[in-house]
Amino acid sequence: MEFEEIYKDDYITNFWNERNEILRSEWKTPINMPEEVYRKTVLAHIEITEKYAPTLMLVNTKNAYYNIEPETQDWINEKSEKAMKNQKLKKVAWIVSEDFLAQISFDQIIDGALQDDAFNIQYFTSDDEAMKWLFDTKNKVHT
Predict the structure, then answer these.
(1) Neighbouring residues of 61: CB distance < 8 A, sequence distance ≥ 6
(2) pLDDT tens digits for 38-51?
(3) Fewest CB atoms within 10 Å of the CB: 22, 26, 37, 105?
(4) Are 113 and 79 in contact (CB under 8 A)?
(5) Rounded to an integer, what distance in angstroms lies between the CA atom of residue 5 and that of residue 80?
(6) Regarding beta strands 91-95 and 12-17, do their DSSP bridges make them parallel or antiparallel, or are they unpaired?
(7) Gap between the Cα atoms of 48 and 40, Å rounded
(8) What is the pLDDT of residue 142?
(9) Would strands 4-8 and 12-17 be described as parallel, antiparallel, or unpaired?
(10) pTM for the whole thing?
(11) Mean pLDDT of 110-120
């Protein structure tokens, strides 16, 4: 499947597949990243999500090692909740980080985002598994 690179900085690259309305994000956050830089990266990702309004999202955090502070987790939940209200997102495939502490941080953010039960999310260790699930019509989100 072809993806067009739509945004890139030192910590995240976003790709778009217009035909299938898939936003793919690859996170590369070092463990010693400044908090304010991480927040700017998150805001850039939220802006891209709002602009492209994906139906499906593939988030690869295998190289995301930054440990998200609890205050920042709350901040991300707040910002994401506002941004997701008018989105048509149905499914998110999350390719997990192998860094245990970073993954716990991401899990806590996702738990907060799922309070509305707005979309379906699954965790994977490979792109192939994640893409297969995204296109599996048996796993539709409950509406």
Answers:
(1) 27, 94, 95, 96, 97, 102, 103, 106
(2) 999 999 999 999 99
(3) 37
(4) no
(5) 22
(6) unpaired
(7) 12
(8) 40
(9) antiparallel
(10) 0.81
(11) 60
